Amino acid sequence: MPREAELSLNAREFILQALRENVRLDGRAFDDLRELQLSFGDEYGVADVRLGKTRVLVRISVEVTTPFPDRKFDGIFTISTEFSPMASPAFEVGRPTEAETLLSRLLEKAIRRSSALDTEGLCIIAGLKCFALRADVHVLDHDGGLVDAACIALVAALRHFRRPDVSVEGEKVTVYSIREREPVPLSLLHHPLCVTFSYFNGGEIALVDANLAEEQVSEAEVVVTMNRHGEVCQVAKYGGLPIDALALLNCTNVALAKVQMLDKVIQQRLEEDAKRRDKGGLMAELSAENARANAAIPG
Amino acid sequence: MPAPKTTLNPLRRPDGSATHSQNGYTIIGAVNGPIEVQRRDEIPDEAAIEVNVRPATGVGSPKERRIEQVLTTLLRNIILTHDYPRTLIQLTLQILSTPSTHSTLPSASSLPVLPALINTAYATLLAGSIRLSTTLAAVLVAVPKRFGKGEAVIVDPDPEEGGSELEAVARKGGLHVFAFDGRGEAVLAESEGDFGIEDWEEACEAARGVCCGLQDESPDVMEVEGAKRSMVRGLRELVKGEVEKEGRWRGEG
């Protein structure tokens, strides 16, 4: 496998010199994200995210299995990130690179360990049957910012996904297909999103959403995951450069603004997609979701 | 049923890429090549070919490995490998979406997805400007069990509309995938199920008609076979469009 082509010394110096003069190669401001395009597939739970030239596709699938014996009341949720040579010839099948390990660990921390998904809601019969939810992250085009793009795609796909409805009578479980009963959305407790900061020039320059060339020059990276209420889910720092505590606080402030903006975009796209699917306005009647508030009981 | 749809070069990073939809499957392919090859895979006088097929959900299974092997053998005969000695041509095919009936088909069956993969592979190699000896077109043919007794072969069955039909054939009759080169010669024939030699020959002729038939350019035949279209004509349109785009700088026309 060829190695990832490294930037030449001239290219590195050029990027750094430009950054010292407050210019980014693609003309963005230092705290600007690239243009985000989000589209959903015809099926539920497929989200295609394009962040600049980076493109990530996440597909959620579900099946019924037995829960783990030590977690009888929880469903199973796994995130699979396997890079293919499609993203870059440097990625070899079956041999995870450092980038792949980092991505899967970060997604694990950001989405799974922050308990964004209520896995208890995936349990059907305690200890016997539960839903196993699987998220496949496919990186189609790689131009840096994989963590941010994958996180957006994953959260959008989870919010878009509908699991089949089930009914339980004693020990007997009936799983209804999409044609029989309107499928049910997942219960997500919050929607964490990642924002990556890259540091240059001994920590003096911080960039949001670096592209691949900038990532190769950067000296340190800070990934902040938070939801739109400003609750920090995790902070990860990579690279040798020490980062000042005040700079970290500043990161969370910037991240909050970005996360709120991203969350709004996802929300908007989801609403557009729901409108597209809701032909004839029958969705409200078809929904098998339990009403949250107690309806007044007549009589 | 929807005609196969192909887009060239949707991705920026690889040397060539293509998306292709057929039989309800959507596949994105990317090719990198000729690139550096590992010492153990190096062939002194030709290019090594690596095909990766990645399913929509889950990790690859023996089923994907088998498809990869079929594709590698097929493509080695299509690509002019002697033009790229001691290099690697690396093709990745990612299945993006499968028809809703995909899960009801017998799980071992790899044939319904194969034509879409072959056609994607061809379009991808074309987009990546890899030198090829000929064109390639593949199609799925379903032969029902009661073929000849009132039932006809189904060429390119639509899994959304005739899903149960396809499923019945997959369980009871024979499924065949044929690929033809530019001269109309069969370069691949994969079959499974229960069928006789007459069924196979009939299926092969039907597939040849769809893959390389140019006869439906005349208006009479068009009416008779209105629903059928020729894969080769679609390919020619694709190549024409690509050549026009690439040759824009010449300022002709």
TrEMBL record, chain A:
InterPro entries: ExoRNase_PH_dom1, ExoRNase_PH_dom2, ExoRNase_PH_dom2_sf, Exosome_comp_Rrp42_subfam, PNPase/RNase_PH_dom_sf, Ribosomal_Su5_D2-typ_SF, Rrp45. SUPFAM superfamilies: Ribonuclease PH domain 2-like, Ribosomal protein S5 domain 2-like. GO terms for molecular function: mRNA 3'-UTR AU-rich region binding. Residues 33-164, 192-257 form the Exoribonuclease phosphorolytic domain. Belongs to the RNase PH family. This is Exosome complex component RRP45. PANTHER family: EXOSOME COMPLEX COMPONENT RRP45 (PTHR11097:SF14), EXOSOME COMPLEX EXONUCLEASE RIBOSOMAL RNA PROCESSING PROTEIN (PTHR11097). Keywords: Cytoplasm, Exosome, Nucleus, RNA-binding, rRNA processing. Pfam families: RNase_PH, RNase_PH_C.
TrEMBL record, chain B:
CDD domains: RNase_PH_RRP46. It is found in: Nucleus. The keyword Nucleus applies. Keywords: Exosome, Nucleus, rRNA processing. Pfam families: RNase_PH. Its main location: nucleus. InterPro entries: ExoRNase_PH_dom1, PNPase/RNase_PH_dom_sf, Ribosomal_Su5_D2-typ_SF, RNase_PH. One of its GO terms (molecular function) is RNA binding. One of its GO terms (biological process) is U4 snRNA 3'-end processing. GO terms for cellular component: cytoplasmic exosome (RNase complex); nuclear exosome (RNase complex); nucleolus. Residues 9-125 form the Exoribonuclease phosphorolytic domain. Residues 1-24 are annotated as: Disordered. Belongs to the RNase PH family. PANTHER family: EXOSOME COMPLEX COMPONENT (PTHR11953), EXOSOME COMPLEX COMPONENT RRP46 (PTHR11953:SF1). This is Exoribonuclease phosphorolytic domain-containing protein.
